[in-house]
């Protein structure tokens, strides 16, 4: 723990930065609320002649997207852009020569960014949820154990996506430009994790492949809170995700160490 204390200032500075540019964040939140409102009308039309589709009732689908938007801040990790920019501008050399871990420094910076956005997002999600409960007369029962499990998933999901994103970010050492790669990685995670639509709507043939990947656990927090994942399965999933995280963290560290031998920095 003492070893990690030197990284707290990076996280704290990143949180403060979110409040400095909170106007941009609020604009992003307004757009997000508008998109969510459009999603409500879309699913209302889909459920017009159906009470339940693939195990989801209409009100459950609304709660799923509301919770997904809340937890999305921990899976929207921009490590690709951060790594690529620092490599391109040569600033990475400044961090590599300091007595700190480059990956841990970036990890805590991006974690601070997510926490800052979360602080601004919670009131918006609360007001949106309160409005939905009033309009659609939603009944939602959640247990303390479900809340605990969902919270335990958050740091593992963040670490998994960070490692995945960081891995693609180091490709800039070889390609000099990762714009296309970053778009692919972002869309890939949202598609295979169930953030676009629940995985229950995917065909069985595709699910058999996605179940072999760890990204399905990204959408587990909202599914657990909605009771769509049994408690026993949620605990097993938590242990499985932890194993995947260790594999990704170790693999990313080895890849980054090998890639540094190929890196050439001008400036910085």
Would you mind describing this structure in some detail?
This protein is mainly α. The chain has one domain (8-260). The chain contains twelve helices and two strands, in the order ααββαααααααααα. It has helices spanning 8-20, 22-46, 58-71, 79-89, 92-96, 102-136, 144-169, 172-175, 179-193, 204-210, 220-225, 231-260; strands at 52-53, 56-57. Strand 1 and strand 2 (56-57) form a beta hairpin. It is globular and about 60 Å long. 30% of the residues are buried.
Task: Describe what is shown at a glance.
The chain has 268 residues and is mainly alpha-helical.
Q: How is the main sheet built?
A: 2 strands, antiparallel
Count of helix runs = 12
Q: Roughly how much helix do the residues carry, as a percent range?
A: over 70%
Adjacency order of strands in the biggest sheet: 1-2
Shape: globular
Along the chain, the helix and strand elements come as HHEEHHHHHHHHHH
- Helix/strand-derived class? mainly alpha
Radius of gyration: 20 Å
Task: Count all strands and give the number.
Answer: 2
- How much of the sequence lies in strands comes to under 5%
């Amino acid at each position: 723990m003492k070893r990690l204390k030197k990284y707290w200032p990076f996280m704290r500075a990143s949180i403060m930065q979110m409040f400095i540019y909170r106007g941009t964040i609020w604009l992003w939140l307004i757009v997000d609320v508008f998109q969510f409102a459009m999603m409500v009308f879309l699913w209302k039309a889909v459920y017009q002649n159906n009470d339940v589709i693939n195990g989801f009732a209409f009100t459950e689908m609304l709660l799923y997207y509301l919770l997904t938007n809340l937890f999305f801040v921990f899976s929207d990790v921009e490590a690709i852009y951060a790594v690529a920019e620092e490599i391109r501008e040569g600033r990475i050399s400044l961090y590599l020569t300091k007595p700190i871990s480059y990956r841990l420094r970036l990890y805590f910076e991006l974690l601070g960014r997510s926490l800052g956005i979360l602080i601004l997002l919670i009131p918006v999600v609360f007001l949106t949820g309160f409005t939905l409960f009033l309009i659609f007369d939603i009944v939602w029962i959640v247990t303390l154990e479900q809340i605990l499990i969902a919270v335990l998933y958050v740091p593992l999901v963040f670490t998994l996506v960070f490692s995945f994103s960081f891995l693609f970010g180091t490709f800039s050492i070889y390609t000099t430009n990762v714009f296309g790669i970053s778009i692919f990685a972002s869309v890939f995670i949202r598609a295979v994790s169930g953030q676009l639509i629940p995985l229950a709507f995917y065909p069985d043939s595709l699910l058999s492949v996605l179940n072999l990947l760890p990204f399905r656990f990204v959408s587990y927090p909202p599914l657990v809170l909605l009771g769509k994942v049994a408690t026993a399965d949620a605990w097993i999933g938590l242990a499985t995700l932890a194993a995947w995280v260790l594999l990704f963290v170790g693999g990313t560290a080895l890849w980054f160490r090998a890639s540094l031998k190929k890196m050439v920095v001008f400036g910085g």
